[in-house]
Amino acid sequence: MKKFLFVCASIIILAACSASDDNHTSQVSSNTVQNQTERDGLSAQPANMIFDYKPPYPEDSPWPCFRRDHRNSGNSPVKANYNGRSPWSFKTSKGIFSTPVIDGEETVYFGSADKNFYAVNPDGTLKWQFTCGELIDSAAALSPYNDKLGCPTITVPSGDGYLYNLRTDSLGEAQERVIWKYDATRDVTGGGKCNWWEANVVMGYDGTYYAGNTNWNYYAINPDGTLKWVYPTRNIDWSAASFDDEGNIFWSSLDLSVHKVSPAGRNIWKKTTLMFVVSSVALGSDGTAYFGSFDNNVYALDPATGKTKWRYVTNGHIYGSPALGTDSDGKTNAIYIVSTDGIIYALNPQGKLLWRYDAGDPIRSSPVIGKAPADEDREIVYFGCSDGRLYAINADTGKKRWSFDTTTYDDPELRDRNDLNGSPALGRNGIYIGGEHGYLWFVPYDYPLSNEGSLDSRCSVGGGEAFDDDVRAVYFVTPGGSTETTGINEPLSAATTITTRLVVREAGVTVDAGLYSFPLFDIYPLEDIIKITPEVDFSAELSADGHYIHINPVEFLEPLTEYTITFDGFYIAMGLHIGNIEIGGTRGGKIKDEVKFKTAGTVSGFPMSAGSDEVSALEMRRLAVPFPAMMTSLNQIGFDSYHWIEGVLDMTGPDENGEGRFLIFSIGAVYNETGELVPDAGTEFTFPLNGKYRDDFFILENRGVIFNVSNVRIPFNLFQLRGQFGDNMSVRPGASVYAEVSPFSDPYYGPLLVLGGLINKNAKMVAGGTFIAQKYTGNASKRPSGVTVSGLKYSKPTLLKKGYVEASVNVENGSAWNPDEHLPGIVLVNPENLEAVSLDYRKLISASKDASGNISGIRLEIPAGTKLPAKLSAYVVLDVFPVFKKEIQ
Question: What backbone torsions phi and psi does residue 727 show, to the nearest 5 degrees?
Fold first, then answer.
């Protein structure tokens, strides 16, 4: 599923309604050691193995929908017999957060944030692809063979508002792949601000399709694509439905609740938790409904009444759906569920802990269960982790069987973009899983245990958990969110934000421990806990739970210098589980540790410039926000889809200290039909960034910038991009994002930040992550031919009256510049320090057109009461090129 800019809880509520296109690249990885087509006779299971499904899924499909069956058990009868195959991967151009589904021929189907839905052959080659109008981050559902069509169909949910029913065969040019498509805008009953299909689609017993939408409705769609009924909820619906024997439907919603609804679409009961619910409901063999909530709890509900039978608390919010283990009689004997605390928990049907395994980094990938090879009488639990590894755990003992690392070490740009937040699917021959890096991976069953796997550095067999049994330590965490337990192995940018993580383990149990600092009363302020040597001026903020410490040097660090960060303070532990016993209360301990790192050296000078006919510009893409963990859970695919063009409006320096300043203007962008990155006239992003640089290091920031995401205004106290330029103006890996948001800046969504446990003791939500940026080479950063500014009017705002800046624009005959296809702008700048005035530019800028459709004027409204500097310049911008500049006061 889905899954810092969160910028506030709008993204909590609206998830990922902003996206950009990208070009598609497919490949079979060089990791494919042997041609799978030569192995047609080798199958882990009989090729004619039949599966028993109550809904009309294809009986030869090993994994036809998100959680495989009508109870959402995530449990497969396929045995993990290794058959000599080798791993392979298939690359898309953006992240994969959906769960694959697999047909009887072992064709695997999945969607990507690059807006494509893919069908990939069993050897990892592309069979076909279908392009939607928006990203795809949810699982499809396979339908049985259609005699009329001569092939099965597959139903695909997309962010473009359509639920597509597609042919699955390889088509001739004259044939259409779309059988029908259902438009979510047709039957909206109110609520959400967009109509994305982000719930995993499933089938009921009579072939009805069920899926939720971000428009706050849950839909039942007839097999022919017509509406059966629509059920309004009070928030976004992401989960997959499950069905009891009578056909009653269970699903969860971001309205904090789980709903039980009759086959006719009437409410039977609703169970409300203390936070969002995206975990799909799994029904045990006795009908008990199991799910997890963002309130950190695993719930077991009485299916008849919805009353809580028991709950079990974890140390983090729960995004993934539970998987159900079975005994030899088919009875549910274990519930396996993961948490963003990095732990997979095994609970018995009475809610008692059987075992837990700490993988070290947040887990959002819903676990699945398969059978061990024939000579082992056990089940195996599989899940992906945000450390990039696919794990296999022996279900009877909770011990790691093996792991496989999908991290693309040969691609530094994606090395830190390795989260496996999508869920695995089990085929006849192995496990399929997609990741943030954009790769779909196939890993054969028990490949790491084979002779071939023993020689593969990606494989790890056996071993303990991610941390030692007794730990009190602070670890460096990469901008992409990976905890580095062996120290910082590569130099950091001299312009970096540094994120560290406190880990406390006692007797093999990870403790929910946070660094203790109470700055509002000056009790152990972070400045007394943290020391940096050589001395550096810095600011620091704790995450709301105290687990993460974000350190921001005020100025550039010195290149090629070794630094030591010392932590000397106290932590607070909020409860502890020992065996089946939950120990409540609060206790603490002493933490004293240090993190050492070295800064990178300068490679070149500052590569950006502002010319008279062209300015330097960056293509910024693939934002990732792993801190706090809830950001990824609520909007990972949305962040990954953001695409910006960032052009230099002006710059100064460098001065005698080697530092200079530059001003950036950022706009949203999309790829057009010819593959060119162009301005997105419908973007929700138009904002300036104030920059400073030294050599090839840079810091970009805006204090007070307002993002407009899906018609929700999100004000930031601070938004920063930090990094170092490399070859050809690409930003080197390790670039960092940092932001601070005040919950009091939004009276509606702000309280949800508090409810979600996202506000620290400084009354801030702090967020961090990474991004990818490279040189932009399109026309948006060039002077438009034949377009000039002929005049500028300025009316200064007062305390009670708004002001404006108005530019008159002339377009010569034979030239064209249509504001419906481009982005006009006016930016107000303090010329004393080259800093832009913080305004909601996207909301306040408007344009007029002449009779030919060309731009004739641009207007920037300045809200009443806006504080302006004594000196003020106005920059008239077309896309990201500054065509005119004038000091107006």
Answer: -65, 140
The distance of Cα 539 from the centroid of its chain, to the nearest Å, equals 27
pTM, whole model, 2 decimals? 0.92
Cα 774–chain centre separation: 21
In this structure, which amino acid lies at residue 434? G
Distance CA 657, CA 609 (A): 19
Q: Do residues 388 and 508 make contact, with C-beta atoms less than 8 angstroms apart? A: no
Name the β-bridge partners of 368. Answer: 382
Residue 528: its H or E element: helix 526-529
Query: pLDDT tens-digit profile of 382-425?
Result: 999 999 999 999 999 999 999 999 999 888 889 999 999 999 99
Residue 638: the pLDDT is: 82
Q: Distance between CA 205 and CA 39 in Å, rounded?
A: 36
Pairing of strands 873-878, 881-887: antiparallel
Q: Which of 314, 384, 822 is nearest to 545 (CA)?
A: 314
Residue 322 per-residue DSSP state: P
Q: Which residue has the tokens 């006779």?
A: 41
Amino acid 132: pLDDT: 94
Among 396, 393, 299, 398, which residue's Cα sits nearest to residue 351? 299
What is the pLDDT, as a whole number, of residue 715? 81
Helices (H), 565-706: 629-641
658 contacts 794 by C-beta, under 8 angstroms: no
CA distance 319 to 754: 19
Q: Using DSSP bridges, classify how beta strands 736-741 and 706-709 pair: parallel, antiparallel or unpaired.
A: unpaired
Instruction: Report, in angstroms and rounded to the nearest whole number, the Rg of the chain calculated over CA atoms.
Output: 27
**Strands 368-371 and 75-79, how do they pair?**
parallel
Q: What tokens were used for 510?
A: 């990870």
| Cα dihedral value 161, 165, 168, 174, nearest 10 | -90
Task: For residues 106 and 175, give the distance between their C-alpha atoms in angstroms, rounded to a whole number.
Answer: 24
Cβ–Cβ contacts within 10 Å for residue 128, how many? 18
> Within the chain, which residues score under 50 in pLDDT?
1-42, 576-584
HSE, CB side, 13 Å, CA atoms: give it for residue 802: 9
CA distance 221 to 241: 13
Total Cβ atoms within 10 A of residue 189: 11
654-660-661 Cα angle (round to 5): 150
What is the number of alpha carbons within 13 Å of residue 385 lying toward its C-beta?
Answer: 25
How far apart CA 78 and CA 83 sit, in angstroms, is: 13
Which element (helix H / strand E) includes 755?
A: helix 750-755
SS3 of 245-308: the string is CCCCEEEECCCCEEEEECCCCCEEEEEECCCCCCCCCEECCCCCEEEECCCCEEEEECCCCCCE
β-pair partners for 614: 782
Task: Report how far apart, in Å, the C-alpha atoms of 303 and of each of 243, 261, 263, 286, 399 are.
Answer: 11, 11, 15, 9, 32
> What beta strand segments (E) does 132-226 contain?
141-146, 151-157, 162-167, 178-183, 202-203, 209-212, 217-221
Single-letter amino acid code for the residue at 69: D
- Quick count: other Cβ atoms within 10 Å of Cβ 170? 10
- Write down the number of H helices and E strands in the chain: 7, 63
In the chain the first and final C-alpha atoms are separated, in Å, by: 51
* Residue among 27, 49, 28, 25 at smallest CA distance from 426: 49
**How many CA atoms lie less than 13 Å away from 869 in the CB half-sphere?**
17
The 343-347 sheet, strands edge to edge: 323-326, 332-338, 343-347, 353-358
